[in-house]
Amino acid sequence: MSFPFALQDKELEEADLDLFYPEFVETVSLFLPCTDVHFAGPHSGGELSSRWKAGVEMVRSEHKPVLDGGDEGLYLPLWSGDSLLGVAILNGCPAACKEKSSTWLLEKSRLISREMARVKGYALDSVTGLPGGQALRRRLDTLLEAARKGEGDCTFSLSLLDLHPRARDADHALAVINRSAAFLSSLIGHLFTPCHLGNGVFGLLWQDISENQALKMADMLLRWLKREGFPRSWIGVRSFACEKAEISGEVLLAQAWEALTIAGKRGPFALCSYQAVSNKSAHPLCPPKSRVVAELRKMWTGDDSFGLVLLHMDEIEKGGHLVLPDSLPGPVVDVNEQEVFVYLPGVERGRVEEWCRDFQ
């Protein structure tokens, strides 16, 4: 029986520059103070800003730091072992940093690269090799900060996927979780990298999609999991669409967890959206208040049959209320300003439907 945890050091890869962008920006800023940091891979070119291309190409060819006198940007090589991993583009560096020698800056770049490798190691889950919960939270915070600044399209959906294994022992449980992670990575890894939060719960961060699109993708994912022989799986979705209210990543995670908890009560393969349950009172089949139920119970006690009609006014002027005709076939119970129950004693379904059509 082999040891199930992956604790070996891993070298940096080009994909890590995007996957751990918030962590790597903080790492670079700790060694060399600056206002903002951008990363370019060893071969990326089309997506680079035109004002960065010359400096990036010089670093790629010379493997040395480059200072752009015109734009006052600092270009540092990043390393994976002895190979060039990419280029860090630093803007807003103080004059003291720009006056340092090329040898000093090159040594800093190697220190930064080694620290980035350590950051990656701490961010990876030892069971699945995927990013852990802290990486997911930092990515959430980065998106929310961009939303507060009004930078680009800030629509995204956070989904929590529960694949809690039924296992006979710890070794079997870890094997099931590892298999689940490999399946998710092969299935949707080209779209985004799943994060393992622990115990078979995965975080999925889908950017630039609406809630309806997220729910369709979640439903499709559940179908795939069922077809692959997973005994059960649940998904909780919390969508964000440039909301005005200040909200933190921790709150979004808690709301997605609430939706996941409800999904777990709906069957072996189910999903739930937080938006659908956050305002339960607005649902047309929401259970009425206890006061309303008590009044209705007094009416139907002793009756062999009755009809119950809920009248709802879709649009109402400010300060107005639902207006009813003077004569009704039964008593009325007010729910709120827009809704009332009409009690129809001793009538069959056909007569109730006929009364509703006449009333409309």
Features:
21% strand; 360 residues; 41% helix; 12 strands; alpha+beta; elongated; five-stranded mixed beta sheet; four-stranded antiparallel beta sheet
Question: Your description of this structure?
Answer:
The chain is α+β, with helices and mostly antiparallel strands and 360 residues long. Helix content is 41%, strand content 21%. The chain is built from twelve helices and twelve strands. It has a five-stranded mixed beta sheet, with helices on both faces. α2 packs antiparallel against α5. The protein starts with 15 loop residues before the first helix and ends with a helix. The mean pLDDT is 87.
Low-confidence stretches: none
Query: Mind telling me the C-alpha Rg?
Result: 29 Å
> Count of DSSP E strands?
12
Class from helix and strand fractions: alpha+beta
* Individual helix count: 12
Bin the helical content: 40-55%
End-to-end gap: 72 Å
Helix-strand topology string: HHEHEEEHHHEHEEHEHEHHEEEH
What spatial order of strands do you see in the largest sheet?
6-7-5-8-9
Overall, the morphology is elongated
Topology:
Elements: H1 16-19, H2 21-31, E1 36-40, H3 50-62, E2 66-68, E3 73-80, E4 83-91, H4 95-98, H5 102-123, H6 133-149, E5 155-162, H7 170-188, E6 195-198, E7 201-207, H8 211-227, E8 233-241, H9 249-263, E9 269-273, H10 274-278, H11 290-300, E10 306-312, E11 332-334, E12 339-345, H12 349-359
Parallel strand pairs: 8-9
Antiparallel strand pairs: 1-4, 2-3, 3-4, 5-7, 5-8, 6-7, 10-12, 11-12
Helix pairs in contact: 2-5
